[in-house]
Amino acid sequence: MLGIYENDVLAKSIISPEKASEFVPRILQELLENFTFNELIYANGPGSFMGIKISYVSLSTLSIVKNIPLFAVSAFELNNNQPISAHKDVCFVKKIDGIVLEKATAGEFSLPLNLSKLNKKNDNLPFYFLSAI
């Protein structure tokens, strides 16, 4: 899921059933041919490790090459703080005292209609939540 925003308002959304490793490089190439970016924002987790890695590496590279600021937001901001699928029926669940893994039904993600209320973080490193072994 990817959104293009003009003046912080959602102007175009792109949703693909493809894996991030297939979708992100292809769609970024297409978008670079049609748009100029002032900033980049991605959900840095929790979620699919591969999806987070692909998004981070692709957008970090674009950020460095084109000198575009890269920000991160918690994936929980994009699904109304609902559980996020981790593996099978186990989800990342946001609690008052932190994030836990438990059996739950994952919530649906959506692109915000406006970026002004997002908690954009300058610390854009991926957030990988792993339980202790």
Structural summary, described in words:
Helices cover 25% and strands 26% of the residues. It is of the alpha+beta class and 133 residues long. It has two helices and seven strands, in the order E-E-H-E-H-E-E-E-E. It has a three-stranded antiparallel beta sheet with strand order 5-6-7, with no helix packed on it. It has a two-stranded antiparallel ribbon with strand order 1-2. A two-stranded parallel sheet has the order 3-4. It has a domain at 2-78: ATPase, nucleotide binding domain (Nucleotidyltransferase, domain 5, 2-Layer Sandwich), CATH 3.30.420. Helix 1 (20-34) runs parallel beside helix 2.
Largest sheet: 3 strands, antiparallel
Q: How widely separated are the two ends?
A: 32 Å
Order of helices and strands: EEHEHEEEE
Instruction: Provide a count of the helices.
Output: 2
The CATH C-level class name of the domain at 2-78:
Alpha Beta
Radius of gyration based on Cα positions: 15 Å
Number of strands: 7
Using the coordinates shown, work out and report the CATH topology of the domain at 2-78. Answer: Nucleotidyltransferase, domain 5
> Whole-number average pLDDT?
93
Strand content: 25-35%
Query: What form results from the Cα inertia axes?
Result: globular
> What's the arrangement of strands in the largest beta sheet?
5-6-7
